[in-house]
Design brief:
By secondary structure, the protein is mainly α. The protein contains 5 helices and no strands. Helix 4 packs across helix 5.
């Protein structure tokens, strides 16, 4: 539930910033993931891993390093690759959406398709590292 809420929070901020406010996808992602990262630390520490012992400062520092890499490098990099460098996967996804009758929402589908793929990459990294390194 925590991961789902955190992901919804991230996507909501990302879409508002990139849609309503016209931020670039990379800038919107950096801001949305930063907000989600702060929420994620407290939720993971107290609800998911229920870690009450150990240094909270050490956990926060390691959490920030692990999560920052996952979000700012892996996730933002994946979005950039899929929307600017190697757009074939997004074009294939868009073609599939058009075959299913989803038209008129191309920009929304591309930016959220790239964000969804990037989220799977960063969530996988984060969960493994939280379990093995941050809240061990």
């Amino acid at each position: 539930m925590i991961g789902a809420f955190n992901t919804l929070l991230d996507f909501a901020i990302y879409n508002v910033l990139s849609g309503e406010f016209g931020f670039s996808l990379v800038k919107a992602n950096i801001i949305s993931t930063t907000v989600a990262m702060v929420f994620s630390f407290f939720a993971n520490k107290h609800v998911v891993f229920k870690k009450t012992d150990g240094s909270a400062w050490r956990q926060a520092a390691v959490f920030w390093v692990v999560t920052a890499f996952g979000l700012y490098i892996l996730q933002t990099g994946t979005i950039w690759i899929l929307t600017d460098l190697w757009t074939t996967p997004m074009h294939l996804g868009l073609s599939t959406a058009h075959l299913l009758g989803l038209t008129g929402h191309d920009q929304f589908l591309v930016k959220n398709g790239a964000k969804a793929i990037a989220t799977v990459v960063s969530l996988s990294w984060n969960y493994i590292m939280y379990k093995k390194v941050v809240f061990k």
